[in-house]
Amino acid sequence: MNIAHTLWVFDAITGLRDPRNKSLPDVLSILNADFLPNCVGPVLGRADTISSAVATRATGTTIAPGRFDAVVFLVKDAAQSFGPKVGGTGPGGADVLGQTFLGAAGGDLAEVYWDRCFSSREMAASIFHEAAHLKSGLGQSMHTQTVGAPHGGPGLRVLKANGASFSSPSSDDLDFYMAAIARPIMLRRTIP
């Protein structure tokens, strides 16, 4: 099956935004130049092919994502986390740049904290990381996944627990995300 994938970035920031070192247009540009184009092609071990993969900013209050898409919410900081609204908790530590709430009321939810990301590149990596949690349906166990084929596997970088410290994804990160894209999930269409 040919699959078109959109990574929706839902800007849910309220209050003033720190513009130093990052902007949402730059984040989307990085995702669309360095991350998602490398997720197009045949999915290893499956009959599926990712025909397109793009990141876009969600506009308005309601979106219409497809069943192979992902939605990541940007919030200003951890104090504005949607976790408590969906039955989860806030982030555990000051170094947590985002969080995904699997099994949340109303559907899984992924979020990234604007004020905790230093640069557009770090934010792009964090969005990709949380989208991978969302699409794969894996919590902490995602950080230690082994992909490995067909290239021998350099290992996960961006998808590790400290993944945002890497400026670009490894081929294993990309292979993992491609396989996750092919997993249909129910997505949130509005801000919780």
Describe this structure in words.
With 192 residues, the chain is an alpha/beta fold. The protein has one domain. The chain has 3 helices and 6 strands; from the N terminus they run E-H-E-E-E-E-E-H-H. Strands 2-3-1-4-6-5 form a 6-stranded mixed β-sheet. The longest helix has 17 residues. It is globular, with a radius of gyration of 15 Å. The model has no long low-confidence stretch (mean pLDDT 90).
Provide a brief overview of the structure.
The chain has 192 residues and is of the alpha/beta class.
How do the helices and strands line up, and which of them pair or pack?
Elements: E1 2-11, H1 24-35, E2 41-42, E3 49-58, E4 70-75, E5 98-101, E6 109-113, H2 120-136, H3 171-181
Parallel strand pairs: 1-3, 1-4, 4-6
Antiparallel strand pairs: 2-3, 5-6
Helix pairs in contact: 1-2, 2-3
* Strand order across the largest sheet: 2-3-1-4-6-5
The tally of beta strands, per DSSP, is 6
Query: Helix amount, in percent?
Result: 10-25%
Q: What percentage of the residues does DSSP assign to strands (E)?
A: 15-25%
Q: Topology as H/E string?
A: EHEEEEEHH
Instruction: Report the uncertain regions.
Output: none
The oligomeric status of these chains comes to single chain
Largest sheet: 6 strands, mixed
Query: Given the structure, what is the number of helices?
Result: 3
Mean pLDDT: 90
Structural class: alpha/beta
Count the domains: 1
Offer a few descriptive terms.
192 residues; alpha/beta; six-stranded mixed β-sheet; 3 helices; single chain; 21% helix
